[in-house]
Amino acid sequence: MNLFDNVPTNLPSELVEVLAEGQSVRIERIVSTGHTTEPGTWYDQEQDEWVVVLKGEAKLSFDDGEPVTMKPGDHLLIPAHRRHRVEWTTKKEPTLWLAVFFEKVSGTFLAE
Amino acid sequence: MNLFDNVPTNLPSELVEVLAEGQSVRIERIVSTGHTTEPGTWYDQEQDEWVVVLKGEAKLSFDDGEPVTMKPGDHLLIPAHRRHRVEWTTKKEPTLWLAVFFEKVSGTFLAE
């Protein structure tokens, strides 16, 4: 199986595929073709999310800080409940994300 | 932070960096420059490992099956205790791996 195979170039909505899953972890491949999070809505997740862009380009926004532009290889940890949204993804080519959702180490992120 | 930055081309041993970590998950970036697992030894891990090659090329061997050649984008789930070794990595360029170690869903893999 190859991450770069079967990347659709035109999708009605984001394509999410679960690549592997464990007791408290989920690894997803996500393909966006110009998609953004619905205006006025935020992701507010129970789990931490580590995310990397492998192709394409995207911009994430946060309700508590500056937006982040992500190009291939750029990765980011989004702690649980840090409200964020996909502000923009390029329409020039599909944007391929790899996301790992997992349980944080108790207290670690709060203590930092 | 970018996965493709600061990739050394010549290393005395594999370079392992922890990118993110949770209660029962660890996300690592691994760089090999021709390294292999020490002859005669196997990895025998407590956790499942999902692994993808992002650059370079590698060959994994298993004590219970055929070897697998991995090129950029190729990914694989190695269940806990499936004995494996890195048989070969290319010397032409660094091989960049992303590995996610995690706890399996109880019984799921045994039941399959």
Notes on the protein architecture:
The structure is a homodimer of 112-residue chains. Helices cover 4% and strands 47% of the residues of chain A. The first copy, chain A, has one helix at 108-111; strands spanning 15-22, 25-32, 48-55, 58-62, 65-70, 75-78, 84-89, 95-102. In chain A, the strands form 2 sheets. A 5-stranded antiparallel β-sheet of chain A has the order 1-2-8-3-6, with no helix packed on it. A 3-stranded antiparallel β-sheet of chain A has the order 5-4-7, with no helix packed on it. The radius of gyration of chain A is 14 Å and the shape is globular. The interface between A and B is medium-sized, with 31 and 31 residues.
Helix residue percentage of chain A: under 10%
Provide mean pLDDT of chain A, rounded: 92
- The spatial strand order of the largest sheet of chain A comes to 1-2-8-3-6
Oligomerization state = homodimer
If classified by CATH, what would the architecture of chain A be?
Answer: Sandwich
Rg calc of chain A: 14 Å
Helix and strand run of chain A: EEEEEEEEH
Write out the CATH superfamily name of chain A. Jelly Rolls
Largest interface: A-B, 31 and 31 residues
Report the CATH C-level class of chain A: Mainly Beta
Largest sheet of chain A: 5 strands, antiparallel
What's the domain count of chain A? 1
Organism (chains A, B): Rhodopirellula islandica
Domain Cupin type-2 (chains A, B): 44-101
InterPro entries (chains A, B): Cupin_2 (IPR013096), RmlC-like_jellyroll (IPR014710), RmlC_Cupin_sf (IPR011051)
Protein name (chains A, B): Cupin type-2 domain-containing protein
